[in-house]
Amino acid sequence: SFWAKNFRPVGTVLLGQKNLTQKDRPRGPKVTLAAIEIFRAENESVVVKMVHLFYNGVVILHTGGIVASITRMGVTMKVVVRKAANDDVPRILDILLQVNNVHANGRPDIFKKGGRKYTREQLAVLMEDESRPIFVAADEAGEVLGYGFCVIIDTAENSNLHPRRELYIDDLCVDKKYRRRGIGQMIFDHILAYAREIGSYHLTLNVWACNPAAMRFYERQGMAVLKKEMEMLL
């Protein structure tokens, strides 16, 4: 089998079977999360910590939140989630254009078609800022498939607020050529693990009302409304 050939089992933590509801589950047939399984590859120093089986032909193997093998229709691609590097900038700019155009289609009164949230020069500055980590999902050839921009926000205690650390997802997007393969889930899981690692109280983000697909994705992750920004056009 795939497991016997590529991985050596070193332990299993059974969770029982959970059939997710229509609201919670990804598109496709029934999804079942059966166990957290731990494997070690014979040819790599990586540990598979979680296995999600999507019964729509896609298998995603999260290896410690860093590496995954994605199998679809018999084709396997290794994907790594890591910190962004300068060589990633051209592909990040490509994907920034895609997500901007989604917003421009939904709110052309606010967003400019063909624009980007960040310029090449601004990306160079962000990559040097430890409080604004950028993570990318890349394939074996180094091509960036998606990204997650984050901001660490520390709120000091004052007369009406408790001190807290927040990890804010400034932007998360997967190239349209690689969507529906679990890559966005990988990036989100990596960001979530990072938020816990740095002691964040919560993970936050904003979603535009003109992007319902993104809203559904974050709701599936268990995110809930913290506050609502409202408008009145004049």
General description of the model:
The structure is a single chain. The chain is 23% helix and 36% strand. By secondary structure, it is an alpha+beta fold. The longest helix has 18 residues.
Summarize the structure.
The chain is α+β, with helices and mostly antiparallel strands and 234 residues long. The chain has 5 helices and 11 strands, in the order H-E-E-E-E-E-E-E-H-H-E-E-E-H-E-H. Strands 1, 2, 3, 4, 5, 6, 7, 8, 9, 10 and 11 form an 11-stranded mixed sheet that branches.
Helix fraction, binned, reads 10-25%
- Beginning-to-end CA distance, first to last residue: 63 Å
Name the helix and strand elements from N-terminus to C-terminus, one letter apiece.
HEEEEEEEHHEEEHEH
Rg over CA atoms: 19 Å
Keywords:
alpha+beta; 23% helix; globular; disordered N terminus
Fold blueprint:
Blueprint: H1 2-6, E1 7-19, E2 31-41, E3 47-48, E4 50-54, E5 58-63, E6 67-72, E7 75-83, H2 89-106, H3 120-126, E8 134-139, E9 144-155, E10 164-174, H4 183-197, E11 202-205, H5 212-220
Parallel strand pairs: 10-11
Antiparallel strand pairs: 1-2, 2-3, 2-4, 4-5, 5-6, 6-7, 7-8, 8-9, 9-10
